[in-house]
């Protein structure tokens, strides 16, 4: 969403003109001495008043603002209407939503006469302020975050699929962990005396996760950026759990200390990180620390196991990108959790305010 | 079908797959080489069939399983020996419908398939010359496979005398033996009566005067004695939702195997078992419904017995159009000579594929630009074809031009029932209509769908006719559509067209095939009619530039003009003047006038290509005769050479992602998209549960990026629609806006989804069509499941009610991030943005 585009220019001009017109009317009504004689539509003397909102002009300004509030609330409904009832382009609706609600700012200020009034109107003004600030903040986020996401998330996926991809990463790690069980390591050590048998066993029970396996999660294959700056770490593929496709396994020699090291690492660091709901607090959740960790891990295992370490590093990188996408998605849409409900409360209270002021006073 | 380029050995062309015809010794060495050569096309052989003389060429061009000639880029065909059956076809078939007059019955042989001679019903008695004397062949030989020889005498079952009697007895016994075991009614009682007249085994038995009951022992109706697991003939197989396989009715003619392997290239059906357990099997002898079979129906249509029969499918609804339309029954179609030879099972399977339209004078049959999903068989009346030549300058005069009264000249032609068919070009190529078709005299037209036309194209007599007219019309269209000829005056255009018409040849190229490589000598100019060409330029072993050229463009002219990269700095005037001098100083033989250049790029086919080719000498003659054309070619060539030095990093990505063929690509500007998924929700809301009984989306907000745009997973309405090729029930076609539309009678075979290279067709259970399938785990029980049905983006206007499409994915986007653009438009957008052209407040 960008408001610095051509279709928004007429709206900007309209809001400026409407603001100027409302201000002029306000001054002509309540401060005729401050405007030229030619625009003193309401005479030379300002009316006696208790509140500006209660005057005809104040009522008009307030009614227009209430109308805009109601119109703004209809944006959500417009999206859900069946085809024949959809009036106008949704883009125009959104533009109108943004600019008309911005217009309410001067209108309400003029309606209030620059005063908070009693407790009810003070509450209303506070609520209005929160709604407007949240809306403007949301507008700013929707202006900036998409570009940020484009640049920092080269392998962005559909948000709803993130839990599935996380589950796949966990499953891949667990499958790898199962290949480094203590029993198996002991068996292998025992069979080391019989090389042929040991080779057979090793071949049969090698880790079934390898860079050549069917690792094709939607984010596994890095999507071309088409010129955008890639700031994320290159993504290594993750695994699909339960895939029974027999892939050619690379021949690696068995090394019990290396396997024990990897098993310990998976248990203590990798699995807790991949299983965690929020990964930022973990060491592996920080790219720089994670790089250090994996560098050290590589030094602690035998050469043939380093490919596994790189594979695990790839999963962590992917998980970090998923977390980043989740965070950005929350920024992008989280403000609505404040904006939308408070808007409805504001409309209800404004309605009540109108009813009370019109019929009770 | 990938074209096969034969290896040349002194004029002898040997194909790898021809080795099957020869024997090899124990060391794998060929012990007999008897391959026909191109010279055999010209050798004429005269033989007698039942006393009637017929002369045929010794060899004919080899055709693939779809009836297409197998030829290389130079247009050379691969010869194969003419068979006795071919000679009989020439003798007895004068017009469509005469096939029944051939006195050689066949079961395993079909014109579009490779002969295997397993049924032995086509055996004939042959007399030849042995040591200068007339001598009879000791054995009866299969006519479908045996080559003709000069002076050969052939006696069929219709021949009088002892030779004919020998053939009759043999054929009769073979037919009776086959019928005794395999002549059975269709498993579905409601279809048995309908299919009975079209059981080819039954018809052949009757034709030979055989008695199906004579040898009947009903051995195969009982299960074979304890067959091993996964081996041998299966019992009745109702597992498929679309077909029933009765293995006991199978005569092992291999038609289904060849249909699956050669015609559809699915490679699912094969032989299994031995002896009396021999049969056909799907994959590793799985039940059909559990195999990888895509249910295309080709095997069912090819089967001459009731071994594979169909289950009722959804009714094919006639398309909406002007004039009265009436569905023509299969019985009437089978009586019509045009449809003689089309498998009856195919016509019975899908009723409604052919509709009769009674049209009055002045009514429009189709307009230029309409989607060309059907062809028209003209039964009576007269039609006018009008092709507006919009690229030719009209001669309306000054005043007419000022007032806009002038109209582009129109090419007009009349078609009658003698022309048989109209509108077949668009139907075969999946492109929009090229001409307006109007009724001149009240006409009866049979509108046929694409799969019917495909069937007709497999029949040699119909194919020859349709292909000839297709090629002629294609070449005309190449000239009309080529950018090279745009803007000429009417007179000059006519001269150029008259010059080229007889000199252009028509070439079809398969995807991936290389037309020429960089550095090779330039021999031809190519004009693209359909498809896209990949032009790759290499520098120091790196591909530095990639281009895509589509319909209407030309390529190959740089080498023919003898230009190279060093000429890029010259002006067009300089080059043109040098060429003019060289050509004018040359005599009649122009080939030496200009030094032959080399190709400056490697060109290959990105998709199916239809090209017109002009040889070098004709090209040089053309540029000498038409200086304006020469100047235009020089300018174009120099432009190409200059741009070769500019590296466009986007282009290879553009070509690799196949964006060049997209007509309506859904792209999301990633700078504007807030990932709200309103596009997906809008799609779901728009379509509701009308098509599948549940709300589904036809797009995924996921895919690859091109520049700052996400190319969403949604149908692109490709110019060359891969998805439409091969649909067995013709339920996928183009809509009014050239979008892809899937009709309700889709059988869910998934062929379109697997054909789509971009994964834009989704197979979704159709809750509106619940079918009964046997339970694999619990024999005797059945499950009710929702049949799959394809779903793809139809631009929210499947019925063509709108004047322009209004896809909800775009309309629902509140942030102006979603748009539908063509491939070239997208390239332009991204290139402009890279160059900083897309600033704010645009």
TrEMBL record, chain A:
Keywords: Membrane, Transmembrane, Transmembrane helix. It comes from the Bacteria. The chain crosses the membrane at residues 51-75, 96-114, 120-140, 335-355. The keyword Transmembrane applies. This is Uncharacterized protein. It comes from uncultured Chthoniobacterales bacterium. The lineage of its organism: Bacteria, Pseudomonadati, Verrucomicrobiota, Spartobacteria, Chthoniobacterales.
UniProtKB/TrEMBL annotation, chain B:
The keyword Hydrolase does not apply. Signal peptide: none annotated. CDD domains: CAP_ED, DMSOR_beta_like. Residues 241-260, 284-313, 736-766 form the 4Fe-4S ferredoxin-type domain. Keywords: 4Fe-4S, Electron transport, Iron, Iron-sulfur, Metal-binding, Repeat, Transport. One of its GO terms (molecular function) is metal ion binding. This is Uncharacterized protein. It comes from uncultured Chthoniobacterales bacterium.
């Amino acid at each position: 969403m960008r408001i610095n585009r051509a279709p928004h220019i007429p709206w900007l001009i309209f809001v400026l003109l409407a603001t100027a017109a409302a201000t002029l009317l306000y001054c002509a009504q309540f401060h005729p001495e401050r405007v030229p004689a030619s625009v003193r539509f309401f005479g030379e003397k300002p009316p006696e008043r208790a509140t500006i909102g209660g005057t005809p002009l104040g009522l008009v300004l307030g009614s227009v603002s209430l109308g805009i509030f109601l119109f703004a609330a209809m944006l959500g409904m417009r999206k859900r209407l069946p085809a024949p009832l959809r009036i106008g382009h949704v883009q125009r609706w959104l533009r109108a939503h943004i600019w008309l609600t911005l217009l309410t700012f001067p209108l309400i200020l003029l309606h209030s006469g620059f005063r908070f009034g009693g407790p009810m109107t003070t509450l209303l003004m506070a609520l209005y302020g929160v709604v407007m600030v949240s809306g403007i903040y949301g507008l700013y986020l929707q202006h900036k975050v998409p570009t940020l996401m484009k640049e920092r998330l080269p392998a962005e996926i559909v948000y709803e699929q993130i839990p599935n991809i996380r589950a796949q990463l966990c499953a891949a790690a667990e499958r790898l962990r199962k290949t480094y069980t203590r029993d198996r390591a002991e068996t292998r050590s025992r069979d080391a005396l019989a090389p042929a048998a040991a080779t057979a066993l090793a071949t049969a029970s090698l880790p079934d996760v390898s860079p050549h396996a069917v690792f094709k999660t939607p984010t596994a294959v890095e999507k071309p950026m088409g010129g955008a700056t890639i700031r994320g770490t290159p993504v290594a593929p993750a695994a699909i759990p339960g895939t029974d496709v027999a892939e050619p396994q690379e021949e690696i020699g068995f090394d019990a200390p290396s396997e024990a090291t990897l098993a310990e690492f998976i248990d203590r660091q990798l699995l807790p990180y991949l299983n965690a709901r929020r990964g930022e607090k973990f060491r592996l959740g920080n790219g720089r620390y994670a790089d250090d960790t994996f560098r050290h891990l590589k030094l602690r295992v035998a050469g043939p196991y380093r490919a596994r370490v790189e594979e695990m590093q790839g999963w962590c990188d992917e998980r970090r990108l998923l977390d980043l996408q989740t965070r950005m998605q929350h920024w992008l849409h989280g403000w609505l959790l404040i904006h939308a409900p408070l808007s409805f409360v504001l409309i209800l209270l404004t309605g009540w305010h109108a009813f009370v002021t019109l019929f009770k006073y | 079908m990938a074209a096969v380029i034969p290896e040349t050995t002194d004029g002898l062309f040997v194909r790898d797959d021809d080795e099957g015809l020869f024997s090899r010794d124990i060391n794998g060495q060929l012990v007999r080489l008897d391959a026909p050569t191109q010279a055999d096309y010209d050798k004429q052989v005269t033989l007698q069939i039942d006393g009637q003389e017929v002369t045929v060429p010794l060899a004919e061009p080899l055709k693939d399983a779809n009836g297409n000639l197998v030829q290389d880029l130079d247009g050379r065909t691969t010869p194969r020996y003419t068979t006795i059956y071919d000679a009989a076809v020439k003798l007895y078939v004068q017009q469509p419908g005469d096939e029944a007059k051939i006195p050689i019955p066949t079961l395993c042989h079909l014109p579009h398939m490779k002969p295997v001679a397993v049924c032995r019903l086509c055996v004939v008695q042959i007399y030849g010359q042995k040591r200068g004397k007339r001598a009879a062949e000791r054995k009866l030989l299969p006519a479908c496979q045996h080559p003709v020889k000069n002076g050969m005498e052939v006696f069929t079952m219709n021949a009088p005398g002892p030779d004919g009697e020998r053939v009759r007895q043999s054929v009769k016994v073979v037919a009776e033996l086959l019928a005794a075991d395999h002549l059975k009614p269709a498993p579905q009682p409601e279809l048995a009566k309908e299919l009975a007249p079209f059981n080819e085994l039954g018809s052949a038995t009757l034709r030979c005067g055989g008695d199906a009951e004579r040898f009947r022992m009903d051995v195969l109706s009982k299960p074979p004695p304890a067959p091993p697991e996964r081996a041998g003939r299966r019992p009745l197989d109702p597992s498929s939702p679309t077909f029933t396989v009765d293995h006991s009715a199978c005569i092992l003619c291999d038609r289904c195997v060849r249909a699956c392997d050669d015609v559809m290239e699915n490679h699912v059906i094969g032989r299994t078992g031995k002896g009396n357990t021999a049969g056909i099997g799907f994959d590793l002898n799985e039940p059909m419904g559990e195999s990888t079979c895509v249910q295309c129906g080709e095997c069912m249509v090819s089967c001459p017995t009731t071994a594979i029969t169909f289950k009722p499918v959804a009714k094919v609804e006639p398309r909406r159009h002007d004039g009265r339309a009436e569905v023509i029954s299969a019985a009437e179609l089978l009586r019509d000579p045009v449809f003689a030879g089309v498998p009856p099972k195919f016509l019975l399977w899908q009723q409604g594929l052919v509709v009769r339209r009674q049209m009055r004078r002045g009514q429009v049959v189709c307009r230029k630009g309409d989607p060309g999903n059907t062809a028209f068989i003209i039964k009576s009346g007269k039609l006018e074809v009008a092709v507006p030549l919009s690229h030719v300058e009209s001669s309306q005069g000054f005043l007419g031009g000022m007032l806009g009264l002038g109209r582009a000249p129109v090419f007009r032609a009349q078609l009658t029932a003698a022309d048989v068919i109209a509108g077949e070009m668009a139907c075969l190529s999946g492109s929009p209509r090229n001409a307006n078709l109007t009724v001149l005299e009240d006409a009866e037209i049979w509108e046929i769908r694409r799969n019917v036309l495909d069937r007709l194209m497999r029949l040699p007599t119909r194919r020859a006719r349709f292909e000839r007219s297709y090629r002629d019309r294609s070449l005309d269209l190449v000239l009309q559509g080529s950018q090279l000829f745009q803007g000429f005056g009417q007179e000059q255009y006519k001269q150029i067209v008259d010059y080229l018409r007889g000199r252009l040849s028509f070439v079809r190229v398969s995807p991936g095939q290389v037309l020429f490589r960089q550095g090779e000598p330039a021999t031809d100019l190519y004009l693209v009619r359909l498809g896209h060409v990949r032009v790759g330029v290499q520098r120091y072993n790196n591909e530095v530039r990639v281009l895509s050229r589509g319909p209407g463009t030309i390529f190959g002219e740089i080498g023919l003009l003898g230009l190279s990269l060093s000429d890029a700095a010259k002006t067009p005037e300089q080059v043109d003047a040098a060429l003019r001098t060289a050509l004018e100083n040359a005599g009649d033989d122009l080939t030496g006038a200009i030094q032959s250049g080399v190709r400056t790029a490697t060109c290959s086919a990105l998709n199916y290509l239809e090209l017109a080719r002009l040889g070098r000498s004709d090209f040089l003659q053309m540029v000498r005769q038409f200086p304006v054309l020469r100047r235009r070619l020089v300018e174009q060539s120099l432009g190409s050479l200059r741009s070769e030095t500019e590296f466009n990093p986007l282009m290879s990505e553009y070509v690799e992602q196949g964006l060049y063929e997209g007509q309506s690509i859904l792209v999301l500007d990633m700078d504007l998209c807030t990932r709200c998924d309103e596009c997906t929700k809008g799609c779901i809301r728009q379509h509701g549960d009308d098509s599948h009984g549940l709300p589904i989306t036809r797009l995924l907000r996921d895919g690859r990026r091109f520049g700052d745009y996400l190319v969403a997973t949604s149908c692109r309405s490709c110019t060359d629609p891969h998805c439409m090729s091969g649909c067995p029930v013709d339920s996928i076609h183009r809509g009014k806006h050239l979008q892809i539309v899937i009709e309700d009678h889709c059988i869910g075979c998934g062929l379109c989804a697997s054909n789509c290279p971009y994964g834009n067709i989704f197979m979704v259970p159709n809750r509106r069509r619940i079918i009964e399938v046997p339970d694999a785990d619990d024999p005797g029980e059945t499950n009710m499941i929702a049949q799959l049905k394809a779903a793809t983006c139809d631009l929210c206007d499947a019925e063509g009610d709108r004047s322009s499409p209004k896809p909800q994915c775009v309309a629902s986007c509140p942030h102006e991030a979603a748009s539908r653009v063509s491939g070239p438009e997208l390239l332009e957008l991204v290139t402009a943005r890279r160059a900083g052209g897309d600033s704010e407040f645009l």
